[in-house]
Amino acid sequence: xxxxxxxxxxxxxxxxxxxxxxxxxxxxxxxxxxxxxxxxxxxxxxxxxxxxxxxxxxxxxxxxxxxxxxxxxxxxxxxxxxxxxxxxxxxxxxxxxxxxxxxxxxxxxxxxxxxxxxxxxxxxxxxxxxxxxxxxxxxxxxxxxxxxxxxxxxxxxxxxxxxxxxxxxxxxxxxxxxxxxxxxxxxxxxxxxxxxxxxxxxxxxxxxxxxxxxxxxxxxxxxxxxxxxxxxxxxxxxxxxxxxxxxxxxxxxxxxxxxxxxxxxxxxxxxxxxxxxxxxxxxxxxxxxxxxxxxxxxxxxxxxxxxxxxxxx
Length: 313
Ligand code: NAP
Description:
- Helix content is 24%, strand content 27%.
- By secondary structure, it is α/β, with parallel strands linked by helices.
- The protein has 2 domains: 2-111 and 236-311, FAD/NAD(P)-binding domain (3-Layer(bba) Sandwich), CATH 3.50.50.60; 114-232, FAD/NAD(P)-binding domain, CATH 3.50.50.60.
- Strands 1, 2, 5, 6, 7, 8, 19 and 20 form an 8-stranded mixed β-sheet that branches. Strands 10-17-11-12-13 form a 5-stranded parallel β-sheet.
- α1 (11-22) packs parallel to α2 (57-71) and α5 (151-161) packs parallel to α6 (180-188).
- The longest helix has 21 residues, at 291-311.
- It starts with a strand and ends with a helix.
- Bound molecules: NADP nicotinamide-adenine-dinucleotide phosphate.
- Residues 115, 147-153, 155, 172-173, 177, 199, 233-236, 289 line the site of NADP nicotinamide-adenine-dinucleotide phosphate.
């Protein structure tokens, strides 16, 4: 029986672990096979306070993990398969075993969204990627495309421009939603071109991407566009499919419930529809989605769980 089980190991989960163990709770963290969250797929992080020259995303996550381990958080290096919140203690199943907890913190993050168009399934990993940082190297001297108009698309285009022969950003509108700073960097990079008002409706290629079919949003005209690689940067989907009995919103994000505590004054801001289950990070936060806000939410979730455990002995 654990006081707190934490699901997920991005900045939210690991920060929650650090706070939970320092509050004296027996804490188990189930990080998932692909541990570390989205920063594992990133290069230089310059907006996480405390690192004068920035830090590589994977290094930051490794340090957070080592910090949690050093303080005594137990890690179970696997994926959980079920989270049952229908009765107490809560039951988390992983590797065929059931782990019980008085309180659970969900920090399972969000995953990349795919276009779901013809050719995508068979060409995943054969020219279609959702991670430029991971796969750019394979496109040295090749023609590439990035789909999307947010910060991720800008970042991916910049990463690719360092190795690829060309980068074309394909966006479905006539303006980006990315931050001005990121857009400025993209527009300054000669290798990067933009095609506005277009969507990708099909991939061409059998063993590897050879091109795509584009559709013009305004005219409806379709055209073939030759490329060696397609990098999707069209947003994320929260990892909530294994949670039964928890209230989710229309996009699948966990709904945060500010439940009142006994005093009626403080409340639990990271509460969910199940008392004793708390949430932190991108799995509920579709607004800020930053490493630092995820870490902050992880801290809040652990402080709430700590207080809830004290008040519900
Ligand atoms: P995002 O901001 O939601 O942008 C997704 C982009 O994909 C949008 O431009 C959207 O078009 C487009 N899109 C969505 N579905 C599409 C579809 N089916 N077909 C074609 N295009 C589609 O997602 P994000 O770029 O992953 O960023 C998420 C959050 O992380 C943001 O808050 C961002 O600021 C942050 N972030 C920050 C950094 C950084 O600071 N270095 C890096 C990466 C991400 P519309 O614009 O038309 O909706």
